[in-house]
């Protein structure tokens, strides 16, 4: 793989690899580090350039690095982006209701299995279609649909909607 091909691969897939790990870990810094390490490991392998298999390999490397890091440090997943309600023109009751809903949402997300949370966040945060998620995670579309269905059902019940 030439430097130009590697740069193309990096530019096209770095953000999605980083987001994939972020959805699993909820730690932006860790996600960035693992994404970078994944590309370095791929570069060191010096493979022929074929984008689709290399993209799949990147996801596999990133997943393996994440699992290794998790096992080695046994770090609890405890970081989520805190959403701050806009203060202008909202009553204290509205702000309190928003904070309660945000808290319920964060708790419900944490209670989802890692697989369901990953599929849900890839769909909702990145706006990916089920086929794209299935390709990235090397799953069938039916498996993605099932995980998403369960996640949405659970979130509806948890949020009382």
TrEMBL record:
<keyword id="KW-0731">Sigma factor</keyword>
<dbReference type="InterPro" id="IPR007627">
    <property type="entry name" value="RNA_pol_sigma70_r2"/>
</dbReference>
<feature type="domain" description="RNA polymerase sigma-70 region 2">
    <location>
        <begin position="9"/>
        <end position="74"/>
    </location>
</feature>
<dbReference type="Pfam" id="PF08281">
    <property type="entry name" value="Sigma70_r4_2"/>
</dbReference>
<dbReference type="InterPro" id="IPR014284">
    <property type="entry name" value="RNA_pol_sigma-70_dom"/>
</dbReference>
<feature type="domain" description="RNA polymerase sigma factor 70 region 4 type 2">
    <location>
        <begin position="105"/>
        <end position="152"/>
    </location>
</feature>
<dbReference type="InterPro" id="IPR039425">
    <property type="entry name" value="RNA_pol_sigma-70-like"/>
</dbReference>
<dbReference type="GO" id="GO:0016987">
    <property type="term" value="F:sigma factor activity"/>
</dbReference>
<dbReference type="InterPro" id="IPR013324">
    <property type="entry name" value="RNA_pol_sigma_r3/r4-like"/>
</dbReference>
<dbReference type="GO" id="GO:0003677">
    <property type="term" value="F:DNA binding"/>
</dbReference>
<keyword id="KW-0805">Transcription regulation</keyword>
<comment type="similarity">
    <text>Belongs to the sigma-70 factor family. ECF subfamily.</text>
</comment>
<dbReference type="InterPro" id="IPR013325">
    <property type="entry name" value="RNA_pol_sigma_r2"/>
</dbReference>
<dbReference type="InterPro" id="IPR036388">
    <property type="entry name" value="WH-like_DNA-bd_sf"/>
</dbReference>
<dbReference type="InterPro" id="IPR013249">
    <property type="entry name" value="RNA_pol_sigma70_r4_t2"/>
</dbReference>
<dbReference type="GO" id="GO:0006352">
    <property type="term" value="P:DNA-templated transcription initiation"/>
</dbReference>
<dbReference type="Pfam" id="PF04542">
    <property type="entry name" value="Sigma70_r2"/>
</dbReference>
<keyword id="KW-0804">Transcription</keyword>
<protein>
    <submittedName>
        <fullName>RNA polymerase subunit sigma-24</fullName>
    </submittedName>
</protein>
